Amino acid sequence: MKILVDSREKAGKNEHVLKYFRDNKIAYETGIALNVGDYCIDENPKLVIDRKMGLNEVYCNVIQFHERFKRECLRAIEQGIELIILVGKKRLSALTMLPSGQTRDGNAGT
User: Fold this and answer.
1) Is the whole-model pTM more than 0.90?
2) How far apart are CA 62 and CA 100, in angstroms?
3) Cys bridge to 49: 35, 39, 54, 97, which one at CB 3.0-4.6 A?
4) Which residues pair with 14 in a beta bridge?
5) What is the pLDDT along the chain (110 residues), one digit of tens a residue?
6) Neighbour tally for 4: CB within 10 Å
7) CB atoms inside a 10 Å sphere around CB 80
8) CA distances from 51 to 43, 65, 89, 100 (A)
């Protein structure tokens, strides 16, 4: 079993992931052009992980780059791929952690 890493993953942005693979002797291969997502297992290419660095990236994907994210989700559906969105922990682990009336950027809401 080997984890395939998409070629579009930005160098340095996933170094902690690759280090984890190396430290735990998990076989992986970089530079693979995946149709959807960032990671998959070579034995099950229909199960794909799309890694998001935090809630800000999720927000941008859903609001600012909605059409691109939507196209990726539709490609997954069309190809019978189960797409798992994995959100890394930056500062918040859930939007429910925001104090009442506060926006995601820490400013008071209106």
Assistant:
1) no
2) 22
3) 39
4) none
5) 999 999 998 778 888 889 999 999 999 999 999 999 999 999 999 999 999 888 888 888 888 888 888 999 999 999 999 999 998 864 444 444 444 444 444 444 33
6) 20
7) 7
8) 19, 16, 11, 28
